[in-house]
Amino acid sequence: MMSKKSLTQSKQGGYRATLHLDVHGSDSLENEKEVENHVVEYTIQEAIDHSGFGWFQIKLSIVAGITWMADSMEIMLLSILGPVLSCQWYLEAWEQALLTTLVMVGMASGSSFWGYVSDKHGRKTALMLASSLIGYFGILSAFSPMYLWMAMCRFLVGCCLAALPQTVTLYSEYLPTQSRGAGIMFLEVSFFKSEEIFFAIGAAVEVTLAMIVMPRLGWRYLMAFSAIPVLFFPILGPWLPESARFLLTCGHRREAVAMLERVAKDNGKTMLKGKLSSVDLEGEERGSFKGLYKPSIRKLTCLLNALWFLLGFSYYGMALLLPTLLNKPDGCHGTDIEVLTKNYCSVKCSPFTYEDYVDLAITSFADAPGYS
């Protein structure tokens, strides 16, 4: 008896093992017998592609969007808070600028740390911890008795804000291949970039909140209310999925399969049968900063660093400068007689008016059409 094996592609995207048996010397007319087994192996991406884009990704997009709203609100809060504290605490121009700078320095210094935590302990763990700390330090900022206290709290908020981009990483890992090329998308008749939409909404919400709260309750209540959205994240934490790739890299194959089954169930699809392959993830080093600069991706890392620096410099520079211009409309442009004669900009302490808040809200939400 001689036998031979062959692999034929199945309808589910995996492979079936077929055993052909050749029987010699038998009176039977049957010369060949096929035995078909289930799918042998499949990768995480094959399982996600099979499940497609559905309710699971929609729910995850909303949860991720809340974190982007929180990020945007904290950044916009700096724009509104600076001029107010300058009036109340009689801050110098450099002290007002330092509050914003410390948040950005915190984000820069915390990004590598949270990347390490995410790789070592999971993206869900990092996001749950960071969002809780953002809420804690955000509310603590509202009780600041002095400038130094406020500066330290805002620096720590910035350190924790650096973890929020992990939501994009987690979300992209559960996107089917055909949807990933269009970016981080949300399903509604057609696709649109929900994360960036949430970012624009967050900025507009913060300005609207300031318009309502500041004249009546003051800046301390504004800071406390601004920390509320990020506190929804720990509440939604039990539903938040862990990265299937992280679970498989850690050797938790059963948990990774359970996550993929959950994706298929939420999207109304059947799970691929067979064994989850770990070939693509074997030997991966987790939590290594040096891995960003290995020869295969060193150039990409450097280019992305430069791109994000220029993007942050331009976007946040304009976003944070606008409230200053609104707060001092006649201090720094050519129609002011004092500027023309003495060649300097006056620094006047004046609260935001209703019209200033409206202008700030309009410019903040101007991002939305570009994202869609």
TrEMBL record:
SUPFAM superfamilies: MFS general substrate transporter. The chain crosses the membrane at residues 97-117, 129-149, 197-215, 300-322. Keywords: Membrane, Transmembrane, Transmembrane helix, Transport. InterPro entries: MFS_dom (IPR020846), MFS_sugar_transport-like (IPR005828), MFS_trans_sf (IPR036259). Its main location: membrane. Residues 60-372 form the Major facilitator superfamily (MFS) profile domain. It is a multi-pass membrane protein. GO terms for cellular component: membrane. GO terms for molecular function: transmembrane transporter activity. Pfam families: Sugar_tr. Belongs to the major facilitator superfamily. PANTHER family: MAJOR FACILITATOR-TYPE TRANSPORTER HXNZ-RELATED (PTHR23511:SF5), SYNAPTIC VESICLE GLYCOPROTEIN 2 (PTHR23511). This is Synaptic vesicle 2-related protein. The lineage of its organism: Eukaryota, Metazoa, Spiralia, Lophotrochozoa, Mollusca.
